[in-house]
Amino acid sequence: MLRNNSGYALVYVLLILFVFSILSISLLLIEANSTKDMVFQREEKQAYNLAWTGASTVGQYLIDNPDSINNLLNKTSDKHYMESGYFYVNVTRDTNYIYVKSNGYAGKSINSVTLTLCEVDTEDFIITEYAIVSPDIKIVSNSKVEGIAAVTEDGRISVSDNATVTDVKHIDKYNIYELPMFPSFSSIPLDPDITSNASITGSYACNKISLKDATLYIEGDADIFLKELKLEEGGKIVVSKSSKVNFYVSEKIDINGSSLNKAKVGSRDNIGHITIYYKGSENVVFSDVDLFSSLYIESNNLNYMYYKMDLTIGNNSKIYGNILCSTPTNIRMENGAFMKGIFWSPNSDTYITGNNTILQGFVIAKDVTIHNRARLVYDDSIFGEDELISNIKEGYTIHRWK
Q1: In the chain, where are the structural domains located?
Q2: Higher pLDDT, 155 or 119
Q3: Burial (CB count within 10 angstroms: exposed 0-12, middle 13-18, buried 19+), residue 48
């Protein structure tokens, strides 16, 4: 009987050892696959960065040197090696566009980025000499316009007795003030979301940047693709001096600080070098913000005949940059906000109101109201400082990232 029990015990022990062996092998396989996945994800990201570097470098070269297109057309570059791998670039064109396709290689991963450029006609872009250009202008309630208000021949202007304007003129055309090209883009979340102190170099693509009492440092030129940009009190984005940074936001922008702890994007060293492109349909509110950036809105809302997106700038916010809207938008600047730049929104209604609310620049809009002690002071000095607008010249501009 003891022998039988010993035999059963031995079988039982062997079964347990077998099961543990299977589990150990499974865990090893899982760990190996996990490591393989991590390596693959890292190499995918590196390949994308390499491809983006190639497309961005060649695209910017063509924008800066438009006469060089024939030297690069239908040619493939040599392989350019970097620490993580290499890339090469090919340039082609059709009737309307130039395509800069870059392939990046890192380990066993391959990724490609195509930058599409289109030609620019400088006759479409005019620096205005007027403080306001609109077919419908109202200057009322102790407000003040230090500059010329220009209304179209078939438009109208009203100035109340307690409001002032330097001069009023009638002009023939309103639709000559065409906007720069809004680039087409999509968000490809390859990188982790940024929700705490972080530092990045070069391109980045994620779902969300959300900062509260935290800082994101961006070193060097960069294109940041994301779905949502959110900054709360103490949230800051710091960009190295003279770097050119573009944010491409596809769904939502929410930048709201507090009176004691503002949200902040950029600094005076970055004026004209940071642009936020936004194609979402949700309202945008800037409250207690220091923004050293331009904003370009082209909403994907197709129902704007019945619903316009709202853009509100208030609560002592300060903006040094230009705000462009190609789609109909209700723009409101209020509650002691200050802006040095231009509202360039020919399809939008613009309302500037409140004591100590000051726009130093000019306005191009469908409907303009200056109200309740607000001031508009004509100044075109920032027009040429802004990379978004100063790059408007004969040659090429970005049409699409893909």
Answers
A1: 2-120, 123-394
A2: 155
A3: buried
